[in-house]
Amino acid sequence: MNVVIVLLALLGSVWLLAVVEGWTTTGRLSLSAPLLSGLAHLGRESIVPRTPDRLFFEAAPILFLIVAVLGVTVLPLAPTLVIADLATGALFINAALAYVLVALIMAGWGPNGAYAMIGGWRFLGQLIAYAMLIVMPITAVAMRAESLVTTVIVASQESLWNIVYQPLGFVLFFIAAMALAFRAPFDLPIAEGELGGGVDAEYTGVRRAVLRLARLTLVVTLAAATVVFYLGGWHGPLLPPWAWSLIKTLAVAVSMLLVGRYLPRIREADLMRWCWTLGIPLALVNIIIVGLLVLVVS
Amino acid sequence: MTAVLIVALVTGAILFGIGVYGALSQTNLVMIMMGVELILAGALVNLVAFWRFLHPESYSGQMFVLVVMTVMAVEMAVGFGVAIARFRAKGSVEMEEAGDLKG
Amino acid sequence: MYAQAFFVAIFGLAAIGFGVWVFRTSSMVRSALALLFSQTAVGCMFLAMQTEFLGVLQIMMMATEMSIMAIFMVMFMMDPGGLGGMDMTHQKRFSIGAGVIAGGVAIAVALLADWGPVTPQAPDAAMQTRELGMELLGRSMLIFETAGITILTAMIAATAVAIPVQTLANGGDKEDSE
């Protein structure tokens, strides 16, 4: 039962997000636009490039979608509304999302196109930049909750949300999450301006539809993770817990879309430098501050 | 229960065998490292099986797994460092062409 | 118990299958990703053996590690796509012999040894994570710290080996694009 509810919530969030994305790019608010464009994708010709690595070409969009959904399985909507309340939930979501990289490398290598391949390998460089900034803020969150279980992490924020308790960690995690979801300004693997679509470039028809769905699902997954780790999950007055989770998730997802619209795309080398010379020291400082707070306050 | 232990140990042994074959037969440094990774994967399977089925009360077993994972990471880092240096100097990481390392 | 044996065997077969594929395909990216899926199957075996933390950790670490392996394969191989059908092996007979003997001896030991009584019940996952943490920062702290320092040393050493030799000829410039 939980599985169905959570997956429906995920699907609904993805649909709303697609509506908002369409609204911001075309200026028209249309509730049916995502469905129509999805159907249009199904009707289009599915071109397979010459001499592809067929296995990777076919498997990449599916793997991408699977890992994006797998990430959601450990994130609670309400105290009992979670698919798998794993003892290592906060680690599991990292493990699942690490395979986004694998999917993108497969999608880049598979179609035997230069731009796609560059896009795929670029994401590997991007991972080396953002990976530590995902893991280290989560470490600080787990330190406060004294647990890796996601429901316990949310419960630990009942009196004070983590965004107030460790604002530095939130900022780092939010940036890294955007880099992981390769939203603008971190959309290096699919950079339209320089790579003509990058890993997306060679995909058409059904596969393209799956790829786009997976990408939006990934944004929702990361937004939900941000909510669970930093924004108090289901906590909130008046409304039922699941409603709070959904509202916060959508708000974070939309803010991820909006931030990217006002920033220029960052260069690969700059991203790497700032993440390693600025981001990681700040993440360490965050861990130290949280450690001191945990020791002093409790 | 012993059956599960033996299944895991046999799997570890076969992975080890494949790894040994790979590490000895490949001519490319990176492929050799893949063989070594498989050898270590076999070792990991055995360690976890021993911890789970023989000594679940002693967490040194899990600790050892972490150490082996560290060894895998270190092997990768140093191996690729050497590979880059070699490639820069000689333009190839083929082991057949590395006779000059004999000294 | 039968379910556990079944899953351990299935993931074990997957690990072996992908492991064999690593050395049978001539496409280097396929080879690296086959190794990745082999390691992932090993991680799933850990999960099947109720060792949740290590399983998830293995699955997470190997995704990055093997992807990095893939890019090095593409960088250093003459024929990364494998379309030329080059033979990348040497001393075949010796290697097959060594592999079979090494694997065979290990299998024989696994089958013949008396493993004694087997514990049917594993500690539950939350308990394991907690106890492993206590072990890491308690009795085994020195080992854990040494492992950390080793990785740091390896990183520094690898970087030092890998950066280009700077001579006066190129003005001691870094390769940095700035």
Question: How would you summarize this macromolecular structure in one to three sentences?
Answer:
Chain A has 298 residues and is mostly helical. Helix content of chain A is 71%, strand content 0%. Chain A is globular and about 65 Å long.
Given helix and strand content, the structural type of chain C is mainly alpha
- CATH architecture group name of chain B: Orthogonal Bundle
Approximately how much beta-strand content do the residues of chain C carry? under 5%
Radius of gyration computed on alpha carbons of chain C: 22 Å
Structural class of the helix and strand makeup of chain B?
mainly alpha
Beta strands of chain C, count: 0
Uncertain stretches of 5 or more adjacent residues of chain B: none
List the chains of the largest interface with their residue counts. Answer: B-C, 75 and 87 residues
What does the model show?
The complex is a heterotrimer of chains A (298), B (103) and C (178). Chain A is globular and about 65 Å long. Helix content of chain A is 71%, strand content 0%. Chain A has one domain. Chain A has helices at 2-26, 33-43, 54-72, 89-109, 114-145, 150-155, 162-165, 167-180, 192-195, 205-230, 241-261, 268-297. Chain A is an all-alpha fold and 298 residues long. Chain B has one domain: Helix Hairpins. In chain B, α1 runs antiparallel to α2 and α2 packs antiparallel against α3. Chain B is elongated. Among the domains of chain C are: 1-81; 125-161. In chain C, 70% of the residues lie in helices and 0% in strands. Chain C has 6 helices and no strands. The longest helix of chain C is centred in the middle third of the chain and has 25 residues, at 52-76. In chain C, 38% of the residues are buried. The mean pLDDT of chain C is 85. Classes of the chains: A mainly alpha (298), B mainly alpha (103), C mainly alpha (178). The interface between B and C is large, with 75 and 87 residues.
